[in-house]
Specification:
2 domains; 176 residues; Arc Repressor Mutant, subunit A; 5 strands; alpha+beta; two-stranded antiparallel ribbon
């Protein structure tokens, strides 16, 4: 019986973390979060993810070639009903351990820079800004070398807000 209670509590912990982060996560992202904080072992986590998906407490969706897990409505309802079972120290830990990750993931999902090869001496760099899953800015640049494409993406990753702001300012400034 003790084992059943631990599994139920681990499921609630996983649901709580997904609800707190409130951003769809890949399996690797969830695994890293859970293992880095020693909440459970890898095999238990994978089994729980499967169980929670099967029972519709977690949704698994595909986007841009990746699969993402997020808490489903049934998972939120389960947390409302049984969330008080989770110890207060755990909730505090989640808040302190995952607040920074939540901001970082949100930024990564909203500010995207990638490139791909179109022929031997041509690469397309695509820089995007999204808001609420809607693309509000997209810039594609054709460049001659992979090195240049990598450098543009690296600069975008380091300071997307400044680059985006500069482009918008340039485009919206009145002509003399």
């Amino acid at each position: 019986m003790e084992s059943g209670n631990k599994i139920a509590q681990d499921k609630l912990k996983l649901l709580y973390i997904l609800k707190f982060i409130d951003i769809p996560l890949t399996n690797i992202e969830i695994t890293n979060c859970i293992l880095e904080n020693n909440y459970m072992d890898y095999f238990s986590l994978q089994q729980l993810l499967g169980n929670l998906c099967d029972s519709k407490f977690i949704k698994l969706t595909s986007k841009n070639g990746n699969e993402y897990y997020e808490i489903a409505e049934a998972g939120k309802e389960a947390l409302e009903m049984f969330g008080d079972i989770l110890p207060e120290y755990f909730k505090d830990e989640v808040s302190s351990n995952f607040s920074h990750l939540k901001k970082e993931l949100k930024k990564q999902r909203e500010l995207i820079g990638h490139y791909y090869k179109i022929k031997e001496d041509a690469f397309i760099v695509n820089l995007q800004v999204t808001e609420n899953e809607t693309v509000i800015f997209s810039l594609s640049i054709n460049v001659p070398t992979e090195n240049l494409a990598k450098n543009i993406c690296k600069k975008w990753d380091l300071n997307p807000e400044e680059i985006f702001g500069s482009i918008i300012k340039t485009l919206t400034t009145e002509l003399d």
